[in-house]
Design goal:
By secondary structure, the chain is an alpha+beta fold. It is built from ten helices and 14 strands. It is globular and about 60 Å long.
Length: about 325
Amino acid sequence: MPKRILVTGVSGAPGFDLARSLQRLGCNVLVADADPHAAGLLLPETTAHVLPPAADAAYRAAVLRLCAKAQPDAALSTVEQELPRLVALRRPLADLGVTTWLPAREAVAACGDKARFAAVLTEHGVPTPRTVSPDELDRVPDGLLVVKPRYGQGAKGVHVCRTQEQARLLCNLVPSPIVQEHVRGREFTADCLVDRAGRASVILRYRLLVKGGLAVVSRTFTNPEAEACVRAALTATGVTGACCVQGFIRDEERGSPGRVVITEANARVGGGFLASVAAGADYVGQYLRGLFRQDVDHDRLTYKPDVTLTKYVETLTTSEGTTR
């Protein structure tokens, strides 16, 4: 029987593309989002549901009520803010027959909190940008600096500035801000699948064109140093399942060690994972196998370099009058 999979966060590219990919594999897909106008809620041949935001007190009851009624075989989230709530719901969801594949609470915290992520990587010797809180700005010299939310997704609230004074002003505008040194170089994402035994497959792709935090043009590549740093970040955080790691390959000192810098990790599929699929990796298929506690075939997660994928905007449907 086809599996019934609930995918949350379908207003963004990770959830939207994951839902579509699961459909192509023959799954019956339920889609959910806190935004009633989310594009993914209009995907054909899916069942759409609107949930409260993860921070809402009604979120827990709404998720359990939805799962009790719709009876999905599994639930997959693509929203960082949902992950801590879902970790706490792991047992109640299992009691309803809903399978999840969620990292440990500590791994979710390490990936969802950018200050904590930097501290964890530094502790494990993984290269990452110098990161300070607003009251530690005197520790960083003037130069290009990045001010970003400590908790966030999709490059929202991220600003680049040149001086400590500018950074202080931006810290008053950004919620729970942190300040990092700006890294110059080629930005990349690694689409990763870490099985329940801790073995990881890593698929590297350059972020050639980025809009709103989403890589709309990606090209796969191989680089032993980048792959090693990604694997070290996965080990340091303890994240499992489908996830993505971002970083830079510095422009300067080509050919010398220490060129790769890891900037963040997300305990969910990345927004450009279709590039890895186009390059030959059975990414979603093996994610499904691991989800239902089957062995992940890492030989099917190999890929070809120099495969370029371009994302575009399409119109799903049009309507007249008030639909919601």
